[in-house]
Structure formats: C-alpha cells, structure tokens
Amino acid sequence: MFPRDFAWGAATAAYQIEGGWQAGGKGPSIWDTFCLEKGRVFGDQNGDVACNSYELWEKDLECIRQLGLTHYRFSLSWSRLLPDGTTQHVNQKGVQYYNKVINDLVACNVSPMVTLYHFDLPQALQDQGGWKSPSIANLFDSYAKFCFQTFGDRVKLWITINEPYVCAKLGHEDGIHAPGLKEPGTAAYLVGHNMLRAHAMAWHSYNHDYRKEQKGWVSLAVNSDWAEPLNTHCKEDVAATERYLAFTLGWFTWPVFVTGDYPEIMRSAIEAQSKKLGFNGGPRLPSFSKDEPTVLGTADFFALNYYTSRKVKKGESCGNILCMKSDRDAGDVLDPSWPICGVSWLAVVPDGLRKLLKYIKETFDNPAVYITENGFSQVGTLQIEDDQRSKFYKDTLLEVAKAIQEDEVNVCGYFAWSLMDNFEWSDGYSVRFGLYHVDFNDGKLSRTMYQSGREYAKIILKHKLDQ
C-alpha cells in the first residue's frame, strides 16, 4: 500500500512539550511572555512545564520506540539555543540537549525531521520588531546556519518555518497567538513576507554551504484545508473557493513553487480593496526584492499540514475595514454533514486530504510530499479507548494510500499530530491530540498509549512486515 521507504512519523513542537522554560540558560520566547497575560490562554495555562520533555526525553523516546516510528518530527527552541536570538551568545546546554535527542534517535534507527521555527520567537527579537522587522530574515538565516552546522551531519530533513499562515494571521491580525498583535489588513502580510524571505535565505545558505556534504532536504511546512464550493453550480461560490485557496495555501506556495510571487488573484484583490477604502499607506502586500535571493524553487519537498476541509460560499463584504477576510471577500462555511472533532474548527474529512494531495500534484508540478501534521482532537472526558480517533487514522491512511496508488501522488511520509498530549496553544491542555495521553495532574507526567496509538503502531508494523 505504501512505498518501501515511506516515513512513518509523529510530530511535536518545542514550546508545546519541553517545559524547562528557564532551565539550562534558556531565554524567554514570545509564548513565555504571551502566557503571562491573563485571559490569553484557556485557564491561564502555560508551557512552563508542559510534558517536561527537557527532563523526560527518555520517556518520549520510549514512546517513539513503542510506536515503531521510522521518523520523528520535532522543533528546536531558538531561544534555548540562542537566548538573545543571535549567534553572539550560544547556550551550550541547549546544544547538548538537542544533540542527545538527535543522537538517541539515530541510535534507534529513527530519522529526525527538525523544524527550526515553530511559533516561539525569542522575546529579545520581538522587542526589536519581531517578524514585522525586515532584519529578522538575516537573523533567522544566521540561526539556521548555526543549526545546519551543529546538527546537519545527522539531520537530513529540515523544516525552516512551520505554518507561516498561522503565525501571520493568528499572531498578528487576530491576536489569539503570540505575540498577540491585532493589526488587521497590514501586519499579517508583512510578517508572511518576512517569513518567506527568511526561509529563502536559509534554503540558499543550505544549498550553497551544506548540501554537498550533508545531502539533506529543506522546505517549509504550510497548512491548508481542502476547499470546495458550497454550491458547485454557483459561479460566485466557485470564485470564492479559488480566492480562499489563494489566500491560504497559495499565499506561501505560489512564491516558492510557481512564480516567485504571490498569486495574482490575491494581489489584485488586496489592491482593489485598498483603493476602495482609500488606503494611502502604500502596497499592503509587499513585493520581493531582486537584490535578495529568489524565493522561487526554495523547497526540496512539499511539507503539508492538513486537518480539515471547508465548503466555501461568497461572503458578505466586511464593510469599511481592512482585514484579510474583506480582502478575499469570501466566507467559509462548514458543511454540517461533516462530523466535528472536538474543537469547533475541525471537521473530520479524510477524503479531503486525498483531494488536496491530488491538487498539489497537479498545481505544483508533482513534488515529493510529506504530510508533516495530521490529527484528531479529543476534549472533555478522557477516553483512552478512543474508537473515533482510531477510525480516523485508519480512514485517513486509506485515503493517503489511494492518493499514492490511484492518483500517483508522490507521498513520501505521514506524521501524526501529535506524539503525545501537549500544550495546544491558546487552548492550553483542554484539547488532546496525542497518540499518548499525558497526565498533567500527575507530578510524574506519566504517558499512556491511547487505543489510536496502538492502532497506528499496528499499521506501521503491518507495512514493515509487508515489505
């Protein structure tokens, strides 16, 4: 059903699992700061301890081994390695921690996929403007080169930035993620632009200075729903769906995979809205400079985070305000026939992943694809015997197999989100995505495998035995 060398993985992120927020010389990140503010996170919870993976890494490794994973995706904490965000001050205890994680994985024949940035910018850099500052791209490039040089002899799969869309929109327009800014219609586009610049610089640095010796692959992880018109016979709904995909998936993939610039439908819509409202602050969607390394072609594979699908209809105008929704003039509507999984935004649509994979093949010239996140949430009463989630993984992986066999999509791997229950950003610990349950009321933070974890392990083992 799957290629011989298919990557079977699970994923985590540093702030969500590590804890040790002040341990071993680590500097503060924007999420450390964000969580100090009352009302930002469910129950005013934080990641100060989380799963305490900083001290309990061996427990995580045992979970990875029990599942039979061939790959493990995790992120580096920029502020644990470089407390002030710059290479002028390297925290050797942070280097030692990640060296141990990587060495232990390699010793167990588990390949690391390492994310350089998963939402947790050093607070020292936020104080200088963060992702809104043009200088952030060069600072990220320096950080990336430090990581390539330090860990690249053992790491062959790199993600530069995780979900730039989420960081830009939720962190700088909606204000519900760190750094909690609400600057609608302007900051998100600037942040997204600087993230693409940062990614491109890091990719070119790897390509020029490290690829020949280290022989790795580098990409950025984009999140995208699948989207369909609410009424397939309605031209307005079809057009709204095109805009929706352009303003989400297209925003970060068109520059990297297609043209080196943003989708024309996106740029023209933003310019039209600016003109309509008499915005005189200059172009809100920046242009790429010819004096900097090109962003086109800066991905060695397509890294996709997929969770849900949407039915889209033409939306109502947002009136005389600048925001992303008014720019695209489309409102997305969840089809009530799709079951909701725990959290309100997550409808369970396994075949949406297959459709999206086929779309990626046809739109982006058949790239190698890693599904770098996909999961099913649980809220409320704990269910270790999680039948629904077990079925979700079976159904989803069946759709991935169909995409490979019938649609001939070059899917190279699948990473479940997440290895274990963790700090789910503004939802705190109220939402559980893990293959392992973590008891956050237990001082030992015990890990217990869910039924879905056992089922995933069976699928992996069967694949290995079928080879």
Automatic annotation (TrEMBL):
Annotated GO biological process: carbohydrate metabolic process; glycosylceramide catabolic process
Organism lineage: Eukaryota, Metazoa, Chordata, Craniata, Vertebrata
Segments crossing the lipid bilayer: none
Gene3D superfamilies: Glycosidases (3.20.20.80)
Name assigned to this protein: Cytosolic beta-glucosidase isoform X1
Keywords: Glycosidase, Hydrolase
InterPro entries tied to this protein: GH (IPR017853), GH_1_N_CS (IPR033132), Glyco_hydro_1 (IPR001360), Glyco_hydro_1_AS (IPR018120)
Catalytic residues identified in the record: 373 (nucleophile)
GO cellular component terms given for this protein: cytosol; membrane
The keyword Methyltransferase is assigned to this record: no
Iron-sulfur among keywords: no
Family of the protein in this entry: Belongs to the glycosyl hydrolase 1 family.
A molecular function GO annotation: beta-galactosidase activity
